[in-house]
Each structure stands twice: as C-alpha cells, then as structure tokens.
Design goal:
alpha+beta; Muramoyl-pentapeptide Carboxypeptidase, domain 2; 5-stranded mixed β-sheet
C-alpha cells in the first residue's frame, strides 16, 4: 500500500484500518498496488467524513470500469453495512457511517 505524497492519514479513525486492510488485499488480487489518494486532507463537501478521519479515497484509474465496480462491490461486501463504498469517476470513496 502507498500513500500519495501530501495525503494525511494521521488521525484516521481506527475503523478505517479495516478499509485499508481489505482494500489492499482486493487491489492485490487485481494485480494493483493500493494507493490512498485522500484522507483528512483535500477539499471535500462541507459535511464530508474526511474531515473527521472517517473517510478515504482510493486510486482506481488503473481499473477498467467493470473491474472498478467489482472492486468496489467486493470491498462493500467485505466491510459490511456500517461502511459506504462509492465508485466515483476518478476514485473509490469509502467512509465509516453506521447511522445511514
């Protein structure tokens, strides 16, 4: 696993450890190295969980659309309902949000 230069993961909630561990294995199964592209840094929506250490963005540009969706679905299945996994055009966003 790599952390993109400038990305801040200090202060991530402990619940995000499961995300990083699961995603790392899934990305390896697809022959790619996991790259975290956002943590507590960057510009996000006003109420984003990134600012609370409860969200990360994961690089997906090396996946085809179909593979990216399989990776996102697999990650969602492994993490369960307390996590939201959203496939965006440029990345996969994952947040810990048990109240949704």
């Amino acid at each position: 696993m790599q952390i993109k230069e400038g990305v801040n993961i200090r202060g991530l909630n402990i619940k995000m450890r499961a995300v990083l561990m699961a995603a790392d294995g899934i990305w390896q199964n697809f022959g790619q190295e996991l790259v975290v592209t956002a943590g507590l840094d960057g510009k996000h929506s006003k109420w984003s969980l990134h600012y609370y250490g409860m969200a990360v963005d994961l690089r997906s540009r090396y996946f085809s659309d179909a593979t990216k969706q399989i990776a996102a679905d697999t990650l969602q299945e492994e993490l369960g309902g307390d996590y939201d996994v959203v496939s965006h055009a440029t990345h996969i966003h994952v947040e810990y949000d048990p109240d949704r």
